[in-house]
Amino acid sequence: xxxxxxxxxxxxxxxxxxxxxxxxxxxxxxxxxxxxxxxxxxxxxxxxxxxxxxxxxxxxxxxxxxxxxxxxxxxxxxxxxxxxxxxxxxxxxxxxxxxxxxxxxxxxxxxxxxxxxxxxxxxxxxxxxxxxxxxxxxxxxxxxxxxxxxxxxxxxxxxxxxxxxxxxxxxxxxxxxxxxxxxxxxxxxxxxxxxxxxxxxxxxxxxxxxxxxxxxxxxxxxxxxxxxxxxxxxxxxxxxxxxxxxxxxxxxxxxxxxxxxxxxxxxxxxxxxxxxxxxxxxxxxxxxxxxxxxxxxxxxxxxxxxxxxxxxxxxxxxxxxxxxxxxxxxxxxxxxxxxxxxxxxxxxxxxxxxxxxxxxxxxxxxxxxxxxxxxxxxxxxxxxxxxxxxxxxxxxxxxxxxxxxxxxxxxxxxxxxxxxxxxxxxxxxxxxxxxxxxxxxxxxxxxxxxxxxxxxxxxxxxxxxxxxxxxxxxxxxxxxxxxxxxxxxxxxxxxxxxxxxxxxxxxxxxxxxxxxxxxxxxxxxxxx
Length: 528
Ligand SMILES: Cc1cc2nc3c(=O)[nH]c(=O)nc-3n(C[C@H](O)[C@H](O)[C@H](O)COP(=O)(O)OP(=O)(O)OC[C@H]3O[C@@H](n4cnc5c(N)ncnc54)[C@H](O)[C@@H]3O)c2cc1C
Ligand code: SF4
Prior knowledge:
Layout: H1 4-7, E1 10-15, H2 19-30, E2 35-38, H3 56-59, E3 61-62, E4 67-68, E5 71-75, E6 80-84, H4 103-106, H5 117-132, E7 134-136, H6 142-153, E8 160-161, E9 164-166, E10 175-176, E11 188-189, H7 213-219, E12 223-225, E13 228-235, E14 245-251, E15 261-270, H8 273-286, E16 299-302, E17 307-313, E18 326-330, E19 336-341, E20 354-356, H9 363-376, H10 378-386, E21 394-401, E22 406-411, E23 416-422, H11 431-443, E24 446-451, H12 452-457, E25 461-462, E26 466-468, E27 492-494, H13 509-521
Parallel strand pairs: 1-2, 1-15, 2-12, 6-25, 15-27
Antiparallel strand pairs: 3-4, 5-6, 7-9, 8-18, 10-11, 13-14, 14-15, 16-26, 17-21, 17-24, 18-19, 19-21, 20-24, 22-23
Helix pairs in contact: 2-7, 2-13, 5-13, 6-11, 9-10
The structure holds flavin-adenine dinucleotide and iron/sulfur cluster.
Flavin-adenine dinucleotide binds next to helix 2, strand 6, strand 13, helix 8 and helix 13.
């Protein structure tokens, strides 16, 4: 690689700075490579985050309306997706929870049997936990206690537990020297359980990626540029991808594209998350810029088969916003588990998007049920919109299950379009989720609601969109090989949620981190 210095601006360009991108940035920099991370979102510091999710300009990513916040909502036919945007990707908005999936994940889906995934990934999960500072939530608050009582009623107290989370639980009133990386990381302050993790931690307590992987990568020389959207990756020589790539990007936060840029690089890591990576790859394939990409790009997309229900209490003594974003986990049966989730006090935005929880086979039955609710219980429905302390009175139940079904993303006219490819269509109407919502509602003297998109379109909302450039035996079965190298191209990798090749049934960020750690371990150090 000695003469590469003259031919290339960088050894690796990493597209996106979420979990996969950040791990890649650190490990490649440590191996002596010259690394550029390109991120379309903004670089948020703790003081920049919105105080509540009513500050839409700082919370939502909607560039046509000049809103450059940290959360993006993408409504497709079969699923509504929420995802993170900004330096640190999903870690800025995520709820910190880092579970290791059950064995089934490692032995199912597209990667089944290609290696002993569970054994091979075990040491990488351990490194991922250490790097992200995974530690058990030390304190339960009202939402967790309600869920714990439901677990008792269902005779499964032993299946209720505190999750491991990426939060620093030191003193909340003193800044201390880096407690995680022998002083090489940034100074930190302990968590004060304000519940604001999903609008960005204002207290420097959440271990988002800018506090670990990205921070350390920068110290090792990696360059990170924010507010630039990668639009194209093309081989310098179409007959020999070993000769590197030209990566084009444009300004992501300005209408006038003052910031067009091009760099030459030996290697590329796709880490834009499912929406970013799959969209870019589908574009590159359809324009014949990367024609060798597998026909499987956009296939095998999974959710965690989730249901989100929001339970609002009438009891003024409860404060359901206190605690960390996800304070507890409970497995009500062998397939699924539910987490008690909260937003910080004042983050009341969701109340305008929810309607009473009703189940029904088709939209007409559900609308009929909703009308019944409106006629017989108008105060429940209307009272909810008038409520000033909505976040304080609301616990969100996030139910996930291992059952598998897949969808496919294709290029649509304006956005991606989706199609069901295996199993049944993802649905928010999961009987166990309703049972749990009803029980928690009874426990806290409240009412259960769901997202209006879920009830009207019958498609679930998910924060865990996965797959789309999955691992396969060859290019007819997947987009990447078992080392996450893209079939058909040299020095090109996919390291993000789109490489997840089965349904983890649990929150995926730890798995994305561990898989990227493993993928990076196969890349040799730079031979200078
Ligand atoms: C509200 C919420 C709560 C969540 N809670 C949890 C939780 O508790 N535990 C858990 O495990 N997971 C959680 N998740 C899911 C988690 O955030 C994602 O699974 C994870 O972030 C995905 O990681 P990734 O590496 O695939 O990419 P991401 O983290 O999604 O990062 C991709 C980055 O790439 C950027 N990008 C995309 N395309 C381009 C492009 N063309 N050019 C430049 N940049 C680009 C994006 O802006 C983004 O910053 C949550 C998600 C949300 C939205
Ligand atoms: S609860 Fe508050 S202080 Fe603790 S990590 Fe979340 S946002 Fe930060």
